[in-house]
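sanity check this record:

:::
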Amino acid sequence: MRRLSQNFLADPNIRDKIIQTAHIQKNETLLEIGPGKGALTKALLKASSHVIALEKDPDLEDRLRSEFPSLELYMGDALEYDYTLFNVSKVVANIPYHITKEILLKIENSPNIHQAILMVQLEVAEKLIAPLPNSYFTAHIQSSFECKLAFKVPKKCFSPAPKVDSAVIHLTRKKDKLPPGFINYLKLVFSRKRKTIRSSLKKQLKDLNLDTLYPDLGINTQARPEELDVDSHLVFFRKLTQVSNYFTNS
């Protein structure tokens, strides 16, 4: 049903590659977002003893319940569910492209989810695996996950064929927790991408001289945020919190 921007996976070879990428254990519970007609669902149920699925299209409910009686199916908007309430540590899904960012942020905010193997637009995948984040969204996801491109998927593998090529990405949550306030810091500096980091923080940090405060910092505060990788932002932020509690208290 095109009103929900649905493009159903039609190539069983791609489905099998997704399953191989996910390294599914029989006793682990999986979360699938947007099962559609069940092309991937069938393979997930074969690989795992418990699959939870979230589907918005009511026209697909009877088909999914009839064909997959063991599937734990929830009908409704995937953005309205609290993923921390599901006993899952891995998401495997061909997610709706028009809400890719929102779903990725929900996954990032669900600490119980340690891995996500997702079909996304190729353009999104390339941004997520880029060495330097070009936006707050990319920096946010890269700060919590190791992002890898598993493989590319041409548009002909879907029915109907979308206008863009796709890719499967593999996200693995990093072991180290993010320091309090780091996401607020990213949001601020990337909201002012045309400005240098020093200029972006001038109002918040007032009299602090960022260029001389830590000579051994290893980053140039005259750089723009997209000119630094996430690890450099983290190093700088940890140094910053030693002399200012602005972000940890905000």
Summary: The radius of gyration is 20 Å. Residues 91 and 116 are 5 Å apart (CA to CA).
